[in-house]
Write a structure and sequence with these properties.
33% of the residues lie in helices and 21% in strands. It has 335 residues and is an alpha+beta fold.
Length: 335
């Protein structure tokens, strides 16, 4: 049987998805009593019946539909081994594939909203570390039932949003947070947060809980209303790609450490700013590998936050542990 290069690429992607799915088999049991993975994907996509589900497959419906890929490097902090026992971080410099995006299933969404998302694949010699982050440090649901309700209600417009505000305190807190967030002038001027917690090995063979934070070296640059009015609905991609032609976009990566009193399995709770932060390294986005096929087609693959190197393990957060199987379900529907 003969296969075209395009078909082989898709087959390889499916094999990759199957491999990733094996990583998620154990976590699935932790939320089996809640909403199923297909139900969660349907809620995100707005495909709650068979007709809309089939229509979604035909147009390859997905979340974060508007986005683009680029590349760079990650350099671990020189003294990181004094803080954590993570052999992956012993490397000098590691390739990065990045995807910057907006939320939602609309590939023509306006860039004038305040939401910004950054996903990274940091592929080392033998292990990888993936990130799925946004510029919101608080999540809207602590469990899969509330996640399903939120995604379903927001698609009902103003009435559904008001229902969430009246009935779901976590959703209300999230909406209040977002309403106070100004659109940034660039993806490069955004802070990015991992709302889920992970467990990190220490040199004395203990574990500490923490969350990822990416701080832009260029600083934050919120747009005023007049400045935003002058922008087009598609300014973000060109701005970043033109920027890195001259100056790389750089973020310092930190782990924000929990104290014993902090809830590590609830992404709706923001830990106090007074918590200790440890510098892990620096992400430099410069576009130097953008011509490579793996970068150009990164939006056709999965950014798997549970693909972790030795020394990092996931917390019991049900939202975190649902991400990989949900991404796989979405990927297979687009195949």
């Amino acid at each position: 049987m003969q296969f075209t290069n395009k078909r082989l690429t898709k087959i390889n992607q499916l094999i990759q998805a199957i491999i990733f799915s094996s990583l998620a088999l154990i976590p699935i049991s932790t939320f089996a009593a809640e909403k199923s993975i297909p139900e969660l994907v349907d809620a995100v996509n707005g495909t709650l019946d068979s007709a809309s589900r089939e229509a979604g497959k035909k147009v390859k419906l997905r979340n974060h539909a508007k986005g683009f890929c680029t590349s760079g490097t990650f350099t671990p902090a020189a003294d990181i081994k004094n803080q954590f026992n993570i052999p992956f971080l012993d490397q000098q410099q590691i390739n990065v594939t990045a995807r910057f995006s907006l939320g939602g299933t609309n590939p023509h969404a306006s860039d004038k909203g305040s939401g910004r998302f950054m996903s990274l694949k940091i592929d080392g010699d033998q292990e990888s570390l993936n990130f799925v982050t946004s510029n919101a440090q608080v999540f809207f649901a602590k469990n899969l039932e509330d996640f399903f309700i939120f995604q379903t209600k927001v698609k009902q417009g103003a009435q559904g949003k008001q229902w969430l505000i009246d009935n779901k305190p976590d959703a209300k807190t999230f909406f209040e947070y977002v309403s106070q967030r100004s659109p940034s002038a660039s993806y490069a001027n955004s802070r990015y947060f991992g709302v889920n917690s992970f467990l990190f090995n220490t040199p004395d063979n203990a574990q500490v809980a923490g969350r990822w934070i990416f701080e832009p070296v260029a600083g934050s640059a919120p747009l005023s209303k007049p400045q935003l009015d002058e922008k087009t609905d598609d300014f973000l991609q060109n701005e970043l790609l033109n920027r890195i032609d001259n100056t790389p976009a750089i973020w310092d990566l930190y782990i924000k450490l929990a104290k014993d009193t902090d809830k590590i399995n609830d992404p709706t709770i923001v830990w106090p700013e007074s918590r200790q932060r440890v510098l892990v390294g620096q992400v430099i986005i410069n576009g130097e590998r953008d011509a490579e096929t793996s970068v150009q087609q990164c939006d056709k693959s999965i950014f798997n936050p549970l693909l972790l190197p030795n020394g990092i393990t996931p917390s019991a957060d049900p939202i975190l542990n649902a991400r990989t199987p949900a991404y796989i379900e979405s990927f297979i529907r687009r195949f």
